[in-house]
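Incident log, structure service

09:12 report received: a user says their structure output differs between two submissions of the same chain.
09:20 pulled the input from the user's history:
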Amino acid sequence: MESDFTQQQSLTGLQKAEQLSLQAAPPSEIPGYRVDRLLGQGAFGQVWLGYDRNTGRSVAIKFYTHPGAIDTDLIDREVRHLVSMSTGRHIVQILAVGWEAEPPYYVMEYLENGSLEDLIRARGALDIPEAVQYFRAIAVGLSYAHSKGVFHCDLKPANVMLDHDWQPRIADFGQSRMSDDQSPSLGTLFFMAPEQADLQSAPDAAWDVYALGAIAYCMLVGSPPHRTPDIVET
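09:34 re-ran on a clean worker, output below:
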């Protein structure tokens, strides 16, 4: 996958979401929730801002609007892994699942401050104390995931969301693998360990550690580490 940082775009993720919300209608109604506006969309579907009628809090709703174009096992894996980590402070929390709905969806907490990628795009390189604080929190979340036997396999700034206290939450476990799963998983260029790219290696916790180091570099420099062909081959 190409890194989002390689795309020459002037809009932040939040600004793009505002533009998208003016052009779309929600794919379905969900019992107990109000579906308000589109936050983003990708190859698998759409993420909408919603409102929990019971708790009065905002939520994010991920609709899989292209079920014929995706691997249902991948969706099931992402949800199962999120549920298994439901008590992790630095893991995005899943609140409800509608697997029998059309289209399928799941509801997760809404993290209103966007992603770490949005923050770096807006501000450039972060101050060292702030970068260290984010690094430590992401490492705690990653350690928790590994303690549950889950390897993220696609850790990057776009998959680290920021909550109302600006605390990071690791999100998007669509490429994740369990520690006993030997099937390859492709991450994102510039944040992916070299051995992960050949699609011959079994998933390993070291992949996530490499990605965490690449995130640290990105926070301190303002852009991801670029590897030349010579470096990739070594």
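09:41 both user submissions now match this output. Likely a transient worker issue. Closing.
09:42 reviewer note: The radius of gyration is 17 Å. The chain has a mean pLDDT of 82.
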